[in-house]
Write a sequence for this structure.
């Protein structure tokens, strides 16, 4: 049969390497569509002169847009039969994607664990996106719960990879040419520098954004992500939720875009330390977000840049003025995303 | 009166030639929007290096995107007062459209036939899209049922053009520079070559995609297609269907995008042999598709390329695992599109 | 607190100057998205060769797209806490925006008047958008009703700027290089020249376009306009209208796009003389428009160009065949926009 129906849990082998399909040349159109779909306002991704003033050749695509493009390519091979995307770790953003670049992706299976139900298993996959020069754009690990085709098929040996709680400061990649020495705070929209943030500080990003069915579907197709749950109302109306599930990455992008209000100068995502899609999102939901500074470190040998480790919590249909989060009873029921990333910020 | 209300059946004359308005310079944005609206994943239209490896200057726009741009230009002059788009024939795709090219369109009336009701007539029109070098991008015939302004106006002599059942292999245009000798099957996403397909073989494309009102309207406006039935809920709610009708070309694009799953290497549409919009589609419908190989021929004097004549059937709200089609009783009630095209595929 | 919650009426000072955030490099993607969201068909904005034939370096972005980009930048500083956008005056379009240009915006407060309720006040603001060469792209005045943070805070001295009823012909800016001597009427789509329009003439633009929630939100985010009323259904459902309000500029764009039918050759907006958003618009509304020629003047020292002062009225859910407008009892209840602008048109 020529049709691909995606891999099931028992199809994966430890150490298996997959080169994913459809190399993608990106353009200013990806940037414009990303702006139009998420409302992002970071100056470095919006303006060529602003980027040039930072030593970059031109405005790079948003870092999470690069993430989605790489993620999307992995879906047909990794997660077409996934039940849930469980977590992320060890994500390092390398060369920024610039209009005209071509991104490709490959993955390696680095862990497998059948679940006790024997209906599903967890697949740990390390994926690497590269540009046309072979430079790494993004290297990250995710783990995903995948259905078994046949519950009776034998379980593979359990291998769970050791993953860092956070990417070490020394492992961050500073984009080539980047020099924040002449950073333009006025054009960036806020005056807060690295030194103005304190560990433990919390920022309510205040605004909310409602997601329409067409919006998340257009975004997710832009990334050539083919996961069925996002697109097929005919089957999903009979599924778990009775409707299409929004790609969790779209919620990440909205939370990041909202975080401009209070974190406008956290202009470069350098690492994705972790992330959990706490609850599903659907069309009609309104996303809010708040952030906490988990850690701050100077970037070694750089006077112009500092790093902030940031936890961003997104909620739906509930403002974040009181910073809803996890307690002993579990997450506040409005929380949909708990994201842990490291951003570069001018000093 | 300065407002154009479109031509009615009695306004057309055999042999009449119309140069259509609004030349359009295309860009990477058209490609990105087309990807975002249809979910297409063909590598040649997604990646400049993949296209360069095929001898093309860069990634061409999707062939059906070129079709829609040419079609859209004809609407204000040809089909603003159309009841239905009845059929296509003799469509030959010439020079691919590349970002930066400018497409224009002209049409000639090649047939007229008043219907027995005297309320409408069928207009046969040959349309040609050209690029800024005067090269033909697309040459095709469609026939369309158009309202009469005045049912009492006299009928023109009936002229029905002779049209081929399919474009002959010798009439296909091979894009300048195209050489599939180094085709990259891994990046394309499937390993199936021309030789792997058999006449009569059927492929279920498996996935389904639900159409939102905003999506088809955005796509159809991108093509500057002005047909009222797609855009005006205020009048359509009192019309035949009580709601906006989806541009049939959008369904063609969705079916073609879905066909990537099983026909990923059918990378170039060379001919549109025929097509019928069997039933109307509306927002909320989920489109599925399957294809049958009607014929296969080597491309003369080419070792790198073969041609497949493909019939693609699209359905709504019904999977295609059992290949629903036409029987003596007529079409399966779920069928919305019956398309016949010829694609080039690497050998 | 690092979060910006926007300025309230008492935060503004006469003469205050603000440089707005997020410089934006525009591209062909902005043009394509604008076409896809509004359905505009003006040849000069669609085709590089058509623009080159007019002496322009390439197709400029639609003038109202430039307007929205400049307007959007002002929102976080000026109108985040606005109740209503009350009017426009003295808008002069300068250098067209071309793909690759970077637009920035700054504003000056030129008038303040507390309202008798003491709950709100009117802020008069002159905003200037500039390109990367420092050339003015757009200079205009708007006045907007803004909430007070504290009704008890003291009123500023009332200053109401003197504003012209219309921009004088001698103040219009003719884009550099523009020469309409070889204007291509066929490609433009209509044959009507400047001399074909008479003062007092009315044109019904005939078509209607229904707005979807996703469409206006995507457009408004493209302009990085952050006004909450357009995006947050969670709060708006408890607000004045129970739902999201459509950015009035989107309605301006739709009315202008519809006006192609009858005013296809009014190819350059030179001035925004005035404008009033008579009634709010919501998703599901169908917009129609008609126009009246208020005045016509030759452009001094130019044989190729004339100016038309045009009033365009937009309605919702009501055709404009009988030219609904204002009477002694007030506006027809279907009217949503009353716009007064000056366009250049070939002679």
């Amino acid at each position: 049969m020529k049709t691909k129906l995606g891999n099931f849990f028992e199809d994966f082998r430890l150490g298996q390497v997959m080169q994913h399909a459809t190399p993608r040349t990106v353009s200013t159109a990806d940037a414009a569509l990303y702006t139009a779909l998420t409302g992002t306002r970071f100056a470095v991704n919006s303006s060529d002169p602003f980027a040039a003033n930072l030593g970059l050749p031109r405005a790079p695509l948003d870092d999470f847009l690069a993430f989605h493009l790489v993620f999307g390519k992995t879906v047909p091979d990794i997660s077409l039969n996934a039940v849930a995307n469980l977590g992320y770790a060890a994500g390092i953003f390398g060369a920024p994607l610039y209009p005209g670049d071509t991104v490709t992706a490959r993955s390696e299976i680095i862990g497998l664990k059948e679940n006790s139900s024997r209906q599903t298993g967890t697949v740990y996959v390390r994926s690497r996106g590269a540009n046309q020069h072979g430079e790494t754009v993004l290297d990250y690990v995710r783990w995903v719960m995948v259905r078994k085709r046949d519950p009776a098929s034998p379980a593979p040996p359990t291998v769970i990879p050791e993953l860092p709680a956070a990417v070490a400061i020394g492992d961050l990649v500073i984009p080539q040419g980047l020099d924040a020495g002449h950073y333009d705070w006025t054009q960036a929209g806020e005056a807060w520098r690295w030194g103005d943030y304190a560990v433990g500080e919390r920022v309510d990003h205040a605004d909310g954004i409602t997601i329409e069915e067409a919006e998340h579907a257009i975004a997710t197709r832009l990334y050539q992500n083919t996961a069925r749950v996002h697109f097929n109302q005919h089957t999903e109306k009979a599924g778990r939720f009775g409707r299409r599930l929004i790609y969790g990455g779209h919620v990440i992008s909205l939370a990041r875009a909202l975080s401009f209000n209070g974190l406008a100068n956290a202009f470069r995502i350098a690492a994705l330390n972790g992330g959990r899609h706490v609850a599903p999102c659907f069309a009609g939901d309104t996303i809010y977000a708040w952030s906490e500074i988990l850690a701050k470190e100077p970037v070694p040998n750089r006077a112009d840049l500092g790093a902030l480790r940031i936890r961003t919590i997104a909620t739906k249909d509930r403002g974040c003025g009181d910073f809803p989060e996890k307690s002993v009873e579990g997450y506040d029921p409005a929380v949909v995303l708990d994201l842990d990333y490291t951003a570069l910020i001018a000093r």
Residues 68 and 249 of chain B are 7 Å apart (CA to CA). The longest strand of chain B covers residues 102-114.
